[in-house]
Amino acid sequence: MSYDWQRFKIWQDLAPEVFENSLWQDKNALIHPHQIRSTLEGLVAPELMTEIEAGLAKVGMSLRVNPYIVSLIDWSNAARDPIRRQFMPMLSELEHDHPCLVVDSLEEQSHSPTLSLVHRYPDKVLFLVTAVCPVYCQYCTRSYAVGTDTPLVQKEHVTSTKNWQAALDYIRDHPQIEDVVVSGGDVARLKAAHVKELGDALLRIEHVRRLRFATKAVSVQPMKFLTDHGWVEALLAVMDQARAQFKEVCLHTHFNHPAEITPLVERVMRCLHARGVLVRNQAVLLRGVNDDAETLRTLIKRLGWLHIHPYYVYLCDMVKGTEHFRVSLRQAQKLEKEVRGATAGFNTPLFIVDTPAGKRDVHSAEFYIEKYGISSFTAPVVAPGKAFEYFDPIRCLPRAGQEAWQLRSRADIMAEIRCGDFTGDVPWFPMPNDANRLAALPLSS
Ligand SMILES: *Cc1c(COP(=O)(O)O)cnc(C)c1O
Ligand code: SF4
Asked: In this structure, are residues 358 and 120 in contact, taking their beta carbons and an 8 Å threshold?
């Protein structure tokens, strides 16, 4: 719960004013394995470092952690530490990807009217304003663009400030857009002047009613809000401007585990709360991090204490290199049931499967064939007449299902389902043995 940087030899003499300075954290971010090696000298066995280096060679996200995050990790139990697991992969924990995992699983690039804008829903857009973050999460859904190239993924360059004008023009030309998610990447890595410029430009568009600035800094670099005064002032100025116009600007952040909620985070939230800033949380359900009810309930309770609204818990998207993080739809449904009721309804997150047609409630599957780990979702408002599948991780399937994915193609397995001659030995839901209903269901492919 608390962080102690003095146990690291290279930081042992640092005063709190230095360690708790956001600029210092940025300047001392670790991006090469050899920097982790020297930071952890004497604290971990050399084999662990070898594991992490070998893991990094296989995944889709590059390495970036700051000293604050390194200091939160229990290095005496690093293999099981939920924070280490999110940012530093170990070769031994990686799994072969499900054959349906892809680089851009939400098809953001094909929903892009201009570079850096994703327009999927009728009245809201996602504006990708930067490709960098204070730290890089190994399960990032946007690994196609965020961070630097890895052997697995070469990044698309979609977020340059050069694209902003075209994106603003597009929003201006589409009066149905009333909600803009300003994300990336992480707005914590934008210059203060850019935050102000962008916020003002968006608020000047009459039909834009709501902005959300997305930043994980509240959780991974809370000192950003306590020491980067220029950036905070820029953000607050945009919020004040919005309030004067009867518009709303809020912050969306990203906590996954209760251990990320430190006294420093509480200090940040006391400041933001005093200034009337609404903060919502979007967590990702990650195996070995927060895939048990007790951890999720604790996370949600603590967020509630700090007046951070636990908005969503997402299933990990079907992105290459993330198989070891994913959990089955069934597990997500079970966890939702075990969380709901623990606290106020408005502090209870929706559990979400994200699809190219948008976010769907995990309980809203049209069908779920657990033998093959296939669930199907429809989104009548966003993509009428279409369906989108979520595929459970291979590890969760019964042996027959695992073998099927090894021996057969996706098209072949989907054809079996479409024909309605499915004879699974595992019960599925909601209505088995209804050939007519099955034949009528849309399937993506
Ligand atoms: C998630 C998302 C949004 C915002 O959706 P909410 O459910 O309103 O939070 C907007 N656009 C895109 C493309 C998204 O993925
Ligand atoms: S902070 Fe968000 S955008 Fe950045 S790496 Fe993590 S999940 Fe991806």
From this structure: yes
State the Cα–Cα distance between residues 313 and 181, nearest whole angstrom.
17
The predicted-structure confidence for 160-190, as pLDDT tens digits, reads as follows 888 899 999 999 999 999 999 999 899 999 9
From the CA of 155, how far away is ligand 1's center (Å)?
22
Sign (positive or negative) of CA dihedral 409, 412, 418, 420: negative
pLDDT for 90 equals 97
Query: Does 257 sit in the ligand 2 pocket, CB within 6 Å?
Result: no
Q: Where is pLDDT greater, at 440 or 96?
A: 96
Above 90 in pLDDT, residue 428?
no
Bridge partner residues of 128 (DSSP)? 183
> In angstroms, what CA-CA distances link 188 with 23, 136, 223?
11, 13, 11
Place of tokens 């929706």: 350
- Which atom of ligand 1 lies nearest, measured to the CA of 359? 7
pLDDT at 234 over 50: yes
Confidence of residue 313 (pLDDT cuts 50, 70, 90): very high
Asked if residue 251 lies in contact with residue 278, where contact means CB atoms within 8 angstroms, the answer is: yes
**Residues 249, 243: Cα–Cα separation, whole Å:** 8
Phi and psi at residue 93, in whole multiples of 5°?
-95, -10
- Note the pLDDT of residue 4: 86
- How far, in Å, from the CA of 358 to the mean position of ligand 1? 7
User: Minimal CA–CA distance to 362: which of 393, 323, 329?
Assistant: 329
Using CA atoms, how far apart are residues 286 and 393, in angstroms rounded to an integer? 12
Q: Among 307, 192, 203, which residue's Cα sits nearest to residue 245? A: 203
Centre of ligand 1 from the C-alpha of residue 126, in Å? 7
* Residue ranges covered by each domain of the chain: 9-93, 109-360, 365-445
Measure the CA angle with vertex 318, ends 188 and 420; round to 5°.
150
- Alpha-carbon distance 259 to 303, whole Å? 11
Which CATH number is 109-360 given? 3.20.20.70
Cβ of 63 closer than 6 Å to ligand 2, yes or no, is: no
Q: Which of 257-261, 314-318, 384-388 has the lowest mean pLDDT?
A: 384-388
CA distances from 263 to 143, 219, 267 (A): 31, 11, 6
CA neighbor of 62 nearest in space, from 30, 98, 92: 30
Residue 226 neighbours by CB distance under 10 Å: 15
Q: Any idea what DSSP says for residue 36?
A: H
CB 93 within 8 A of CB 58: no
